[in-house]
Design goal:
With 401 residues, the protein is α/β, with parallel strands linked by helices. It binds zinc ion (ZN) (2 copies).
Length: 401
């Protein structure tokens, strides 16, 4: 696409800035947890219908919504936005603060939905000139539930068949005004892990008569990190984090049971296998040596690593340079060990890639990482860029071949 058209799309997006911001803030105030995005889905569907998009289907992949902007040719590409919020209390004191205690759009999926709605409006406005159709995919349950899988099972890739799919994620590592791109490995394989350490209760003053599950759990936690640091290949990218530790009933009773719940993140198979072998075999022995027993459950059902398709990345890259200038397109140098169920689109055999919408703006105070209670962005500045990039990427993909 030529530079003039790309700049035109950006100005289309700037013209609907007020809508983009109000959509995002409405969603920000009304966050919903994974697979319960009923109001969010209804909101997206309603906006699409108001725009005049005639084919809007709700209930795809449970709470997912799919819209179709029909163009001149049969070829169809997809744009995906995830919709769910996090179980996290918001610390930002802003007029659009979450109205739901303990729930927050701390990963920016509110912005993703707003950008995709914006792209829908832009594409619909250009439908007579579109070299194909664009499927707008509003996906539930990215944060652990694997909503992408439910949508794929419900046929989101078919009728009409998608030729490629793109998505964006806001990124606090990339400066506002810039787009980040990355070929190849983008996010990690994730596996949920649950360890239960079973000791024996006794009076706090006579620990020798019981087995202190909390003390054993502390040793286990240290041993796991030590194992990774000292007994695995340091070149393999992997980690284990335990976000939940539960155990004990009273201050003066030895805990007889401690539960550790966490996640394993890895890019390479070797690192992943080394960790699971350690947990299943060696850690069991270690815990046994301290008189306790260990139960290990590793949920193999985590997200696969997401790998960006080179051709789609190149299209995104060229689109972003044409629209924003080459100086505003940055290479994301490293994959991250976050999980992303967008991986399932690529795994389904579709050329798929995700790009980063920069939101870092330290001068304005926007630098808190995703999943933190102070995460926020200058939505007035970044949303038009996100919406324009989504719309233009779809058109560029349609123009290919
Ligand atoms: Zn997230
Ligand atoms: Zn996210």
């Amino acid at each position: 696409m030529n530079r003039k058209t790309l700049r035109q799309i950006l100005s289309d997006a700037r013209a609907i800035r007020a809508d983009l911001v109000s959509w995002r803030r409405h969603l920000h105030m009304n966050p919903e947890p994974s697979m319960q995005e009923h109001e969010t889905a209804a909101f997206a569907a309603e906006r699409l219908r108001q725009m005049g998009i005639d084919r809007v289907t709700e209930g795809i992949g449970r709470t997912g919504v799919v819209g179709l902007v029909r163009g001149r040719r049969a070829k169809t590409v997809g744009l995906r936005a995830d919709m769910d919020a996090l179980e996290l209390g918001e610390a930002n004191r802003v007029p659009y603060q979450s109205k739901r205690p303990g729930l927050m759009h701390g990963c920016g999926h509110d912005a993703h939905v707003a950008c995709l709605l914006g792209a829908a409006a832009i594409l619909h406005g250009r439908r007579d000139r579109l070299p194909g159709s664009v499927k707008l995919i509003f996906q539930p349950g990215e944060e652990g539930a694997g909503g992408a899988r439910y949508m794929i099972e419900d046929g989101v890739l078919r009728r009409p068949q998608l030729k490629a799919v793109a998505a964006l994620h806001v990124d606090t590592q990339v400066d506002a005004g810039k787009i980040g791109v990355r070929r190849g490995y983008d996010t990690a394989q994730t596996e949920d892990v649950r360890l239960v350490i079973m000791g024996k209760a006794a009076h706090a003053a006579r620990p020798d008569q019981g087995v202190d599950a909390i003390a054993v759990a502390s040793q286990a936690l240290v041993a796991i990190q030590h194992f990774i640091a000292r007994h695995t290949n340091s070149v393999d990218r992997k980690l284990v984090t335990f976000g939940i530790v539960r155990g004990g009933t009273r201050a003066n009773v030895l805990a007889d049971r401690v539960e550790l719940i966490g996640t394993i993140r890895s890019l390479e198979t070797e690192g992943r296998e080394a960790i699971t072998r350690f947990l299943r075999r060696d850690l069991r022995k270690l815990v046994g040596a301290m008189g306790a027993r260990l139960r290990v459950k590793i949920e193999k059902d985590g997200y696969p690593p997401s790998i960006n398709d080179d051709t789609v990345v190149d299209v995104i890259s060229a689109t972003a340079s044409g629209m924003l200038g080459a100086e505003n397109v940055v290479d994301v140098p490293k994959p991250n060990l976050g999980g992303e169920d967008f991986a399932y689109f690529g795994l389904a055999g579709l050329p798929a890639a995700m790009f980063r919408l920069g939101i870092r703006d330290e001068k304005k105070g926007f630098s808190s990482p995703g999943h933190s209670s102070t995460f926020d962005m200058d939505d007035r500045r970044v949303l038009p860029i996100g919406a324009a990039m989504m719309a233009a990427t779809a058109i560029s993909l349609l123009q290919q071949s």
